[in-house]
Amino acid sequence: MITSRTPIEIPWKTGKVAVLADLHHDSYNKIGREPFESHALDRSLQWAELDALIIAGDLADAPFSNWPAAFAYLRRFMAPSQTIIFPGNHDYYAACLNADVEMEKLADAAGVHFAQQRELRHGNDRYFCTTLWKNFSMLGDAQVAMNVAHRHMNDYAQISKRLETGPLSPSELLGHPLQVAITPEDIQALHKAQRRWLEDQLAEPHWAPNGRSFVVTHHGPHPDAAGQIDDLTPAFHSDLTSLFDEHRIDGWYFGHSHRRLAAQVGSTAVRNVSVGFPFEKHGPEELPLEELCLVLAPGPSRRNSTVE
Ligand SMILES: [Fe+2]
Hints:
5-stranded mixed sheet
């Protein structure tokens, strides 16, 4: 369980923040390529003008092996003190679902901020960050969706959870597994807990008059930003319409499905900001990532914003 709950303050320089997800740095590294260069983001983003880079999960599989190389790569573009990360599902591969504390230490060691269930503050903007997972209910029957996900997603073979046991005697320890594979029910429960945290945060009055509120998650929040829907879609997105109805949210950034789509849900601009795997095909309906990922803050020295 993460205990450091103080908001992360992003110093104001230009008012520009980039939110990107799903770099999958290890997949590029294996074949001698690099994520930003492969998608021309090294040239299309004005890196020196950014106040912060937020990575909304899936930086790399097997974080305890692969995050250090990914952090070294990110350092070529952004100072670690301006880089903020929280895990996606892939960041738990070869790790435990309850390894956030250890992941935070790994980020700390690289000087990078870790923002699982954490608020960021920048000018008059607040950002609430969490993996969020999914409720499996988008198409109605959560049990059916959980069965489909269990059959088809690698998460259930790649991610484990540590069992909370009391002290065990040596003989008990011998026959007692200390960690087991996760189940869709574990994921559903975690979604519920992270959604509760998010709703509690959104219900708090904004600390700035006319301040804006953004949400950054790994998983998708609404079918309108999901693209083509099939049996596996509930493993990638939830339908959080009631949450959108109840809270003022100026923008919602996410990744996971790797489809660079945008949708307007009530007053909220919802955007998928996935970089995605090498060689992944992006359809003609997808939007330019360098435009989707930018948040321009209408602060003291302000001009227009990409999200109104
Ligand atoms: Fe991903």
